[in-house]
What we know:
Structural class: alpha/beta
Strand order of the largest sheet: 8-7-6-9-10-11
Number of helices: 13
Shape: elongated
CATH architecture of the largest domain: 3-Layer(aba) Sandwich
CATH topology of the largest domain: Rossmann fold
CATH class of the largest domain: Alpha Beta
Distance between the termini: 55 Å
Number of domains: 2
Number of strands: 11
Strand content: 15-25%
Amino acid sequence: xxxxxxxxxxxxxxxxxxxxxxxxxxxxxxxxxxxxxxxxxxxxxxxxxxxxxxxxxxxxxxxxxxxxxxxxxxxxxxxxxxxxxxxxxxxxxxxxxxxxxxxxxxxxxxxxxxxxxxxxxxxxxxxxxxxxxxxxxxxxxxxxxxxxxxxxxxxxxxxxxxxxxxxxxxxxxxxxxxxxxxxxxxxxxxxxxxxxxxxxxxxxxxxxxxxxxxxxxxxxxxxxxxxxxxxxxxxxxxxxxxxxxxxxxxxxxxxxxxxxxxxxxxxxxxxxxxxxxxxxxxxxxxxxxxxxxxxxxxxxxxxxxxxxxx
Length: 310
């Protein structure tokens, strides 16, 4: 009789950039458990995104309901029992997911929080976690989300965007305005003056901000591009400049050359955003970071300005 496939649950709830960066860990888990049935538990906003991920078979959602919503916790327990999971990789590693272990997975093999000092970044944390679970990671530190990117060449042509183009990411979560560098408009003007196409692809809370920036503001049928369209635009860029925000992490995980701008809110090393040709500038106060400083970092990395079509 054929042996039943192992059923594995991987937990990664959010936020957007964190989910994107988990690609390498998911790839390593899939490679190690190549015959297993792998289910990802994430939050509802990322269900459609992660349903395209080639490293998982199924996606379940957790609304992170507060403790007093007993019905939601009962629903979650039913989902976990119905999944008949034999192993769990908790990539979230929070108090909440530790509670899941105690309530629902007491007799299931569990990989999650580890004793000792806090890892220097989430990616380093994934690496040590998987090594402790017996996996030899190959991709943890180099996530690759090429699977996210739609072909946007026809759309870019319709929008009049020619290569080489630079993507600017001037926004971030509305809850973190301190992460926004205030001079993207001046940077865009300087790049255009030097012959480069400049593109912004704002989220729903950033459309008015992007419209104040010279260049092309790319909007989809719903008023903004979806994740797959955004990734396709980023994939075609010659360079990306952005704040510490999810789309900047997508660009880094697509292997694009780029620059992330960090104030004092956190360190670039902690976020794990720097890899390959994607770098960061860190300053005590983003308002004090001049356009000239950013331009001096960007210009040597750009290809010659051309008039090639997309």
